[in-house]
Amino acid sequence: QHSLFSVFSKFGPLYSVRAHRNAAVAGPGYYAIIKFYSAGDASRAQRACNGQRLFQKSPLKVCVCTKQKGFQQQVLALNSNKCQELANHYLGFNGWSSRIITLQNVSGFGIENEELGKTLQKRSVKYLCAVEVTLPNHGVRTRGVALGKADIENSEDPLEFVTATRRVQKLAVGKALSSAFQKILLVVLENGKVAVEHNSSPQEPTDSLTEEELKGLVQV
């Protein structure tokens, strides 16, 4: 996998690299599935690497997979780490910044368990976070709001409570950062330049609110 990553990452940032053994009926050897963020990068890699001896004696066959039978096409949001990886690659480490506007404890308790015939109070930790992402060179600013939650099995254990609180805070911040990045559209041109568009839904007014209004909305 390291050799594959070294070769194909030259054409653009990679989402994932996975190598697998061939099925027994196909004979000894391996096949790999390499996912690019950009379809253009994948096409360039296929044209350059197909039929070449990259790091092995036999030529490598490289195909572009455009359809996966048996799997329903789903569009999933990138997690915060992947979002930051793309932003650093296309915008540069100094081309964007993020800050936490608010991180609030909105914890509550559980509900009645009818099977046991009594009410069980199960402690849960919830944090609601609002994050702002700014792209100063493009004049773009977006915000994301998200909830992080975890249940605590032993509410009497202070260590478990502190550990869960830190985990939930980190989860809420990461989800809010990912939500903010979902409103940013990066357009990579053929000459390598990057254009940025703000893709915000009318049903999400968080970008137009003041910080005080946003904090009040989060509290409600």
UniProtKB/TrEMBL annotation:
Single GO MF descriptor: RNA binding
Pfam family, one: DSRM_RDM1
Domain of life: Eukaryota
Biased composition (Polar residues): 198-208
Gene Ontology cellular-component terms listed: cytoplasm; nucleolus
Domain RRM, residue spans: 1-67
Region listing for Disordered, in residue ranges: 198-220
Intracellular or extracellular location(s): Cytoplasm; Nucleus, Nucleolus
GO biological process: DNA recombination; double-strand break repair
Keywords tagged on the record: Cytoplasm, DNA-binding, Nucleus, RNA-binding
Primary location recorded for the protein, binned into one broad class: cytoplasm
Listed name of the protein: RAD52 motif-containing protein 1
